[in-house]
Amino acid sequence: MSLSPDQIRVLDTIRDEWDSAETDIKLAEQVCKDIIVPAVKELRYAGRRLVDLVQKISNEPTSGEIPKLLADVEFDCHRARHDAIDAASAKIAIQLDIMAEKLGYDVILSVAPEFRDISLKVLAIRERVLNTRGENRKDRVKIYAVVSATNFKDLVEAYELLKTSEPIMVKLAKLGRRRDFYGRWGFWVGAAGLLIGAVSIYLIFFPPHSDTTTAPTPTSIVAPAPAKHG
Amino acid sequence: MFMEKLRELYSWFTLADYEKASEEATKRIVKRYIRGNVSGQDGRYLNEGNLADLSARGDLAATRLRQKILS
Question: Does the ipTM surpass 0.90?
């Protein structure tokens, strides 16, 4: 089988796309801690088309189907990358949202000032991914817009770096919560002490009057002893 | 104990026990034969449904994050 220079160039492109897809799938798995099956399936479809392509080049080198198969293989690789980026960026967005909600900005920004930058990058990706829902999933231009404009590797590296600071952030947030808790309880204990003190002072200076018209004591109602006769 | 028996009876009645056994057997075989991938061996994977769910949750989180970051 002999390939023309054009065909060799296209195969080179496919190899590069395949490499990128594999890299992105591995990165997504690293972020999600799960295999992203839809992305792997897209690569499987690409593999099937590649076999057809090689067979076509070998048997009918001038077939008009060859450019179509090439485009399909490339698109399958893009879709594989798209699914990997979708999964990982969703996971990162969820994690960043939880961090902002539970740890607080003072803690996060004191440990990882790059938090805002990473968040903005993820938001930009999610916006592009949102445009590829439903029917737009077949839109090659929109799918390509997600994979081409995304520096996915840099984002994952920045996120992993942020995650290494997570234990420090958690410790600081714990300290903050304790301080907050003791601060609040300190206020209420102080307020209660003040109230008790005020009541005590009042009782010292204005003691309650003792009531003298009390009921007769039991001794006063004891019957007198009978007089002795004789 | 009683509730467990009741659940078993319900599974038997609705044939859910068959579905569950079949699913577990598939998972066991996949885990055994998926070589070279720790996540797969641990049975951790996202199928189409899981990915759609994760993606939807990611969109919600992104909306909240946008409000927090840009407000």
Answer: no
Question: Which positions ≥6 away from B68 have C-beta within 8 Å?
Answer: A97, A100
Q: pLDDT, tens digit, for every residue of A99-127? A: 999 998 889 999 999 999 999 999 988 88
Nearest residue of chain A to residue B69 (CA atoms): A116
If asked whether residues A160 and A171 sit together in one domain, one would say: no
SS3 B45: strand
Burial class (CB in 10 A: 0-12, 13-18, 19+), A81: buried
pLDDT at B60: 94
Mean pLDDT of A62-82: 89
* Nearest-CB residue to A96 (from B45, B46, B65): B65
The answer to whether residues A63 and A176 belong to one domain is no
Following CA atoms A20, A22, A26, A29 in sequence, which dihedral angle do they give, to the nearest 10 degrees? 110
Report the chain A residue with the minimal C-alpha distance to residue B39: A34
Q: A129 in a domain, yes or no?
A: yes
- Count Cβ neighbours within 10 Å for each residue of A207-224 and write b for 16 or more, e otherwise: eeeeeeeeeeeeeeeeee
A96 contact residues in B (CB cutoff 8 A): 61, 65
pLDDT value at A221 more than 70: no
Q: What would the pLDDT profile of A48-68 be if each residue is shown by its tens digit?
A: 999 998 888 888 888 888 888
The CA distance from B24 to B19, in Å, is 9
Residues A109 and A125 in one domain: yes
CA distance B55 to A130: 9
Residue A177 has pLDDT above 70, yes or no: yes
Nearest CA in chain B to A98: B61
**Average pLDDT in the A202-220 region?**
67
Q: Give the orientation angle of helix A115-130 with respect to helix A152-164, to 10 degrees.
A: 140
CB contact under 8 A, A97 and B69: no
